[in-house]
Amino acid sequence: MANVKIVTIGLDGATWDVILPFVREGKLPTFKELLKGSSWGILKSTLPPVTVPAWPAFATGKNPAKFGIYNFLIVDTKTAKVRIVKSSDVKSKKIWDYLGFYGKKSMIINHPVTYPPQKINGVMVSGMLTPPRANDYTSPPEISKELEKLGYIIEPNPEVVKTKWDTEEFIDEIISTINKRTRAVVHLMKTRPWDFFFVLFRGTDVVQHKQFQNKEKLLKVYMEIDKSLATILKSIPKDTFVILMSDHGFCEFKKCFNITKLLYETGYVKVKRKEKTGKNSRSSILMKLGISQAFILSMLRKLHLEWIRKYIPVSLKSRLPSSTVEIDLKESLVYPGILFTGASQYLSINRDKVKDEEEYLNLRNELISKLLSLKDPKTGERVVEEAYKKEDIYSGPYLDEAPDIVFLLKKGYGLSTSVDLNAPVIEEIHSPFGTHHIDGIFLAYGPGVKRGHKIENAKIYDITPTILHIFGLPIPNDMDGRILVEIFEEGSEFVKRKPKYVDPSYYEKKDDENLKRAIKSLKLKGKI
Predict the structure, then answer these.
(1) Least-confidence region, from 56-60, 341-345, 475-479, 498-502
(2) Residues whose CB is less than 8 angstroms from the CB of residue 283 and which lie 6 or more positions away in sequence, other chains included
C-alpha cells in the first residue's frame, strides 16, 4: 500500500468505563462513529499502570527493563538525590527512530519523556516533564515560535490543578489546553509533510484524578475531546489509519491504602522530620509547630468528626504541609513507589540494608505475603489483587533497576501519597477522586481494518510493532509486543503480508548505511 499515513491519538488515562456510557447517551458523536467503523477493545497497560513507564513502553514496544525507566523520577538511594527522567534516560529506539531510518517523517506532539527534544526526521514537541519555563521544547527550534503564536501550552496551569480542582476554573483550564493543542495539531498537519503523526491529550487524566466521580465535569472534558477528534479527522487524508489509545485506564478511588503506615508499623520504613525550606515560610512555621494536613485529619478522627474533611476548602488544605515527617531513604529497609508518584503500586528494597541474596529473597517473599493477606477491616475483602516479583513481569538489561515488587490494588482502592502515621492503614475517603487502572483503551480505524469489531488481549507493547507492520517495515525481534493481526480484515494485505523480524542491530546498520550514502552524495557534489 503506497503513501501510508498513520495518526495515533493518545488520550491519557481514558477508559471505556467513561466513554461507552456517554456514547450510549448520544453525547460523544465522534466516538460513536469511530466505534462503528473500527476494531476496538481494552488495552492492557504496564505494571504498574502509570504514565511513565507506559508511554515509553508504547513508543519502544518493550517492557521497562529493556529501556531503563520505571517512573517519573530516578533516585540514588545512597545519596537520597532525586531527579526527573529525561529523554536520554529511555535507552531504546522509539517508533519515530525506526520510521526515520526509512525516510518516514514523524510529527510527535506532547509525548512524555521527550525533553530535551531529540532531532528526528520530522518535528518533535516535547511533552510532560518539560521544565515549565523551557523555550527549547521543540525540534527544529523554530517550531516553538509558531506554536506560541497559537497560544500553545504543554500542561494546564499547575496552580489551578493543585488548588482549584473543585471549581469551574479547573475544567475551563483543561478545555483551554485541549483547544490550544488541537489548533497546533491542525497547523502542523497542514504546514509540514508527515507519514506518522502522534499527539497526546492529557486533559482526560488530569480531570479524572480530581473529578472521576463527577459525571458532569467528566462529560465536559470528554465532549471537548470528541470535538477535537472531529476536527483532527477532518484535517487528514481520506485513507489515513487512525489509532486511538490510552496509556492506562481509571477507576473510582473510594478507599485509601496508607502503605507507608503499614510499612512503618512493621518496621520496614524509618521516618525523619522534614527539612524546612525557608525559616519564615508559612509551611516551615506550621511544620515547626507540628501542624500539617495529617495532624488535622488525625484530630478529626479522634473527635469522630472525619465527615468535616469534605467541607474543608481546597484553598485552605493547600496552605498546610501534607506531613511533618518524611521517609528516610537511607535508613529504611523498604520504600514505597508513592515517593515518586501516587499511582506507583510497588515496593523497592534497600539492598544496602540486606546482608545477602538469601535475606533479600526471604524479605521479598515476606512482603508479598503481607500484601496479599491484607484485608479491609470493614468488608473482610483483600485489598491487593496481585503482587509480582520483578523478574516475573520484566526482562531485559535494566532489570536490576526495577522495583522489587509490583502490586495491583482491587478496584476502588488507591494509595495515600502522604506520610500520615496517625491514619489507619485502610481508610474511607470522601472525595470525587479517581486512580489509575490497568485497562486502557485501543481503537484502530482505516483501510483494511475490521469495522465494529471488538478485540481482546491487546497490550500497550503491541502498538509499535503493529504500526511498523502497517508501514511494511522490519520489526526488531527484541520487542515484547506482537502485531495485532486480529484487527485486519481477512484477505487484506496486512494479513497476507508476512512480517519481517530483524535483530535490533539491523537498524544500527541501516543508520551506518545512511551515513555512508550521505557522505558519498556529498563527495559526488564536491562538497567534501
Answers:
(1) 341-345
(2) 276, 277, 321
As a whole number, mean pLDDT of residues 492-504 equals 96
Say how far residue 504 (Cα) sits from the centre of its chain.
26
Distance of CA 201 to CAs 41, 253, 393, Å? 19, 22, 28
- Pairwise CA distance, residues 337 & 343, whole Å: 8
- DSSP for 154-174? SS--HHHHHH-TTSHHHHHHH
pLDDT reading at 493 higher than 80: yes
205 class by beta-carbon count within 10 Å (0-12 exposed, 13-18 middle, 19+ buried): buried
Beta bridge partners of 9: 199, 244
User: Strand ranges (DSSP E) for 376-490?
Assistant: 384-389, 405-409, 412-415, 426-428, 434-437, 439-445, 453-459, 475-476
Cα 433 → chain centroid: 17
Domain ranges of the chain: 6-248+438-502, 253-434
**Residues 6+ away with beta carbon under 8 Å from 21:** none
For residue 61, the Cα-to-chain-centroid distance in whole angstroms is: 15
DSSP string for residues in 236-280 = S-TT-EEEEE-S-EEEEEEEEE-HHHHHHHTTS--EEEPPPSSTT
- pLDDT tens digit string along 41-99? 999 999 999 999 999 999 999 999 999 999 998 877 667 678 899 999 999 999 999 99
For 181, the grid coordinates are 493543542
Residue (of 272, 270, 249) closest to 260 by Cα position: 270
To the nearest whole percent, how much of the chain has pLDDT over 70? 85
The sign one gets for the Cα dihedral 53, 469, 458, 23 is: positive
| Cell numbers placing 11 | 488520550
Cα 201 to Cα 210: distance, rounded to the nearest angstrom:
17
CA distance 289 to 287: 5
Cell of 518: 550521505
C-alpha cell, 513: 548505511
Q: What is the pLDDT of residues 330-355, one digit of tens each?
A: 899 998 987 666 667 999 999 999 99
**Better-scored residue on pLDDT, 486 or 418:** 486
Q: How much is the pTM? A: 0.89
pLDDT, the chain, mean: 90
Sign, Cα dihedral of 204, 206, 212, 216: negative
Q: Which residues contact 322 (CB under 8 A, 6 or more apart)?
A: 292, 293, 294, 417, 418, 419
In sequence order, the β-bridge partners of residue 138 are 125
CA dist 395 to 62, 63, 64, 65, 506, Å? 9, 7, 8, 5, 21
Q: Does domain 6-248+438-502 have CATH number 3.40.720.10?
A: yes
Determine the residue type at 523.
K
